[in-house]
User: Fold these one by one.
Assistant:
Number 1:
Amino acid sequence: MDFLRPATWQEALSARADRPGAAPVQGGTDVMVEINFDVRRPEALLDLTRVPELGRWEVVDGVYRIGANVTYARVITELGGALPGLAQAARTVGSPQIRNRGTVGGNLGAASPAGDSHPPLLAAGAVVEAESRDGGVRLIPAEEFYLGVKRSALRPDELIRAIRVRPAPGPQYFSKVGTRNAMVIAVCSFAIALDPAARRAGTGIGSAAPTPRRALEAEEFLAAELDWDAPLPPALARRFGELCARAADPIDDVRGTAAYRRHAVAVLARRTLGWAWDDHLGRRAA
Ligand SMILES: Cc1cc2nc3c(=O)[nH]c(=O)nc-3n(C[C@H](O)[C@H](O)[C@H](O)COP(=O)(O)OP(=O)(O)OC[C@H]3O[C@@H](n4cnc5c(N)ncnc54)[C@H](O)[C@@H]3O)c2cc1C
């Protein structure tokens, strides 16, 4: 198996265009497991860890642009203030070793419905920055990125350059159900992001449908019904949970039944909305 080690972004894009059978690798926490278990045997590995741009984040016109190779550990320590929903999700990923190697870019590359980055990226309206040598830069909204189980809108000659996301305009929460507290794939997960100025709440459901997805009807319900100056009515929170559960399309598998997942999505949605609402009212009172 060839091992390609571009040192620049342009070299990486050229290698991607010339060797479509080469698997990009960053932290390797998905790729190496798949090779070890013989799930895939790519003709080559395209190691992106030497490309400096991918390991950096910056703020451009007020938007965070996070290089694809920025690890979960760095999201937690460096971006937790600006992107609390993504940082909360990062804290639940694997173990310290996995968080030190694994990346949000790799999570997107794998496009697993259970990936923990996806719900907060959906809720926050993130955009995936993809690029190819011959096609240039393409900006893909997170909600258009996930096409099926482990299938994304990324073209064969494209690489993920960065993730673009606005700093949180309001409270954000992520919550996940697993069979234990660490080193688990989510049974299901949920993220919420409030935007008090726009009077909107974004949502993201994980591991409860063939792809991560937003709960659009639930978002519209909140936009129409919420009084942003008042305490959260319990009946409204319950209805929000029900609408989120209705947006899910889960399966029965070894980790949980479809019925349990649907129920758990409703509970996570109701709880995260409650936590976010407490923060929202607390900030107004402060
Ligand atoms: C023990 C263990 C526990 C785990 N726990 C969790 C968990 O709790 N939650 C969770 O979500 N995941 C978990 N994972 C899965 C994995 O850690 C994550 O999906 C991680 O985000 C992958 O990032 P990476 O940089 O290691 O990706 P890699 O393995 O390097 O790549 C992953 C995929 O993305 C592609 N890719 C990588 N970089 C790019 C790029 N720049 N452009 C295009 N494609 C690219 C690769 O070809 C591959 O298909 C776990 C894995 C292990 C081994």
Note: The pocket of flavin-adenine dinucleotide is lined by residues 23-31, 33, 48, 68, 92-94, 98, 101-103, 105-107, 109-110, 115-116, 159-160, 183 (CB under 6 Å).
Number 2:
Amino acid sequence: MTDYSQLSFWHETSGDDLTPRAPLAGDAEVDVAIVGGGLTGLWTAWYLLQREPGLKVLVLEKEVAGFGASGRNGGWASALFPRSAGSLERAHGRDAAIAMRRAMIDTVDEVGRAASAAGIDIDFAKGGTIDYARSRVQLAAARAEVDDARAFGVDALEFWDATKVKAAGALGAAFDPACARIHPAKLVRGLARAVEKLGGTIAEQTEVLDYRPGRVETSRGVVTCDRLVIATEGYGATLRATHRRVLPLYSLMIATEPLPDAFWDEFGIAHGQTFADFRHLVIYGQRTADNRFAFGGRGARYHWGSVIKPSYDRVPRVFDHLHRTLGELFPAARDVAVTHRWGGPLGVPRDWHATASYDPAKRVAWAGGYVGDGLSTTNLAGRTLADLLTGADTELTRLPWVNHHSPSWEPEPLRFAGANAGMLAMQFADVEEKITHRRSLIARVMGPLVGH
Ligand SMILES: Cc1cc2nc3c(=O)[nH]c(=O)nc-3n(C[C@H](O)[C@H](O)[C@H](O)COP(=O)(O)OP(=O)(O)OC[C@H]3O[C@@H](n4cnc5c(N)ncnc54)[C@H](O)[C@@H]3O)c2cc1C
């Protein structure tokens, strides 16, 4: 049997032995069936059951709750949305974009509030994100980000000059207070238990093979339901009905041995703070509650046909690159031991626009496409889907991401060529900026295609 505690550092330290729950015991009939036991599915179940305590809610999970990105991520509960405020304004108008930004910022606190209401300790500490600028080009990008945020009037970003930042070579930083550091597996595993306490059922080791409105075919029986929620995020690419809805893109992570407080003081990273820099090929890190680096980044390639395999979670070249990058940012980290290495797929929609959607005619809901910004956004999705599924008309159901329709990804070989070209372009863009000391032309051309 699979040892799920070995999936990541987070799974190993979740305080949960990850023994699978019972699978579906044959055919079943429920009010709401939810496909996928990650945070989208579980938050939806949790908020639904608070609203309608007698509801029969069944979560169908192929492996164990928290097996996917929800248990493996960087632990940034941020206010980030894959589309910037400016891009949302262009797509939906200023008022709608402001409402979306406000909802995302409030969601960071809601994650902490809801976890404690559910009795889950998730190591929540809201210390903000330091986004280092390590070249003149990055410094200009940091200033522009802070200026844009100020002009938009919702976010409370600050520009920090070189005197306030201690990462190697950092000339300044953009600081965003709207971000908390959490332990993602403690959240998702605790939430699964909280859903059960409210009367929900979670069937693990139960693979959904196909679905249509009102009917879900699984490896263990057929589920008939009044309403259906698809919460498979990057794994949606493995189901016929959602194959081209999202592209599974891999993000990989490492964790180091615990480091003394003096190390963190030297580099100015307090508990609760997360960090990144302004390079194009995304990196992200946090100081864990037990004083390790949990540090990740993109760079693993997209696989033909959107195939997802356990072996794709582990790419030595990317792990080495992550350790090297950590050492560049914090030279004293060069010699620290890397104790854990893992990765997983996240879901990228064709236009990089996440959504929480519901079709009342078919009674089918879906949320996802968060790219790398799903940890808080799944909570907003859960609350929003709970409103939509119960017919409530609220501020949340009027947000501009509700019922947003992204175009499908192209068939192969175009999807393969485009996704990997985008990845390479971001790598080249970072090199180009190092050489030319100017904002990358490649990034400007490719940016709209890869969500920058
Ligand atoms: C390495 C990594 C780092 C990340 N870092 C961050 C971060 O720091 N901050 C942030 O905001 N976001 C981050 N993300 C993204 C974030 O984790 C995801 O957006 C979010 O967890 C998505 O949650 P979900 O419930 O929609 O999907 P998932 O957690 O992927 O859940 C989908 C579930 O569906 C199940 N499933 C799949 N197929 C089937 C089937 N056929 N039948 C039944 N069940 C099925 C899977 O087993 C899985 O449990 C990161 C992602 C990764 C991979």
Note: Residues 184 and 430 are 30 Å apart (CA to CA).
Number 3:
Amino acid sequence: MPTATYQTPTSLNAGLRCRCPRCGEGKLYRSFLKIADRCDNCGLDYSFADPADGPAFFVMSGVGIIVMALWAWAAVVFQPPIWLQFATVFPAMIGGCLACLPPMKAWLVAEQYQHRAEEARWESVGGHGEGGFTYDRRGVSNRRAAL
Ligand SMILES: [Zn+2]
């Protein structure tokens, strides 16, 4: 059975273009920030994609720092009236965040895909007092057998 090969883009490339992290061609979103069920080009199932609130945090922090730095500089140098400060800073904050959210979320989804990041799965390795690590238990049992 032939398997398809894809020219996988870098995570930054796929993120900035909001494209599929595997083929780099299919759309990642079906609406503004709503991730599609699967890639319309290669069929990659996007159910693994869950960047949670990471994109919002990074965008809010980055845009906030840049806009506040520019606002502070302009307020000192030009001393504009307060209405002008409100009329420019709030739209810059809101517009900057809305513009940066889709590519940031797509970038984090591409990073999840390329690094196979997923939620941790726990496995029981025994009861209390047995060490808790599978490699420790195997090493202990091997040492006991040798004694
Ligand atoms: Zn794809």
Note: Confidence is low (pLDDT under 50) at residues 135-147.
Number 4:
Amino acid sequence: MKSLLFLATGMIALCAPPLSMVTFAQPLLTQSPGFYRVQLGSFTVTALSDGTLGISHAKLLHGGSQAEIDQTYRNAGVDDNHRETSINAFLIDTGSKRILVDAGAGDLFGACCGHVPEMLAAAGYDVNSIDTILLTHVHGDHSGGITGKGKRVFPNATLYLAKDELNYWMSDEAKAKAKASHQAMFVTGRAALAPYLAADRVQTFTAGAEIFPGIRTIATPGHTPGHIQYEFTSAGHTMLFIGDIIHVAEVQLPTPAITIDYDANEAEAAKTRIETLAMLARTHEIVAVPHISFPGLGHIYKQGDGYAWAPVPYAAHVVQVGQ
Ligand SMILES: [Zn+2]
């Protein structure tokens, strides 16, 4: 028996081509689908990766010394020239409503991004089943994904945003006063909103309103004039969808006064960030963040003169959060 086995393996060895001649099928150089679910009371929250965008922040960050910024990147093991930034959107399934908070970039940034519809499908959700979209603000990496080729990507959804936010992006006067680097944002923002406005599918609100039971809106101006945070509460569990309070966690958590060129009003954005981080360190509320590495779910805590990020521990099953 033993000699037969040797004979058999010897024959395989003789018949097998030398390793140098073997060609393997190339693995697909992609990642697994980017969705991650947690439970918030009776709501299921699914973080959706729209993709990641390689951005060099060196010239975009304002208010800190370049040496200081370089050092914080080095501390985080990040080469600024190859810094990938997550674009995260979030689906909240309340059982009776399917609510998307932001919708990614659509086709604005090319193949890197615009993957929210694929990730929804991978997570078992049809785009036609989304009934509500809440925008934190109208920048392209949040609103670009609501529209594709001039048509609504979510044909059965009503779009909600703050009245101040809609007014700002539709105002020619605001456009004329905006930074040169912000001019294109008005073009892409208006294009994203257009088919929803045409279909009478846009609802505005004043910050502070509870737009649905358990969903509170909070004014957080600066990054844009009508920037909104959405706080969801279910069965005593609370999560805050904080929008663009943080763009570069490695830099802006230890030094929250550092702003980014994308801010419409940088001084006001810094003030809002400082206030929000102080509040979150106090409440230790779980937050959902568009531009902290996917899934962008975690807690802010005080560290030294600034703050730090504690991501939720990865769970291979769906766990309750937000106690
Ligand atoms: Zn953004």
Note: The mean pLDDT is 92.
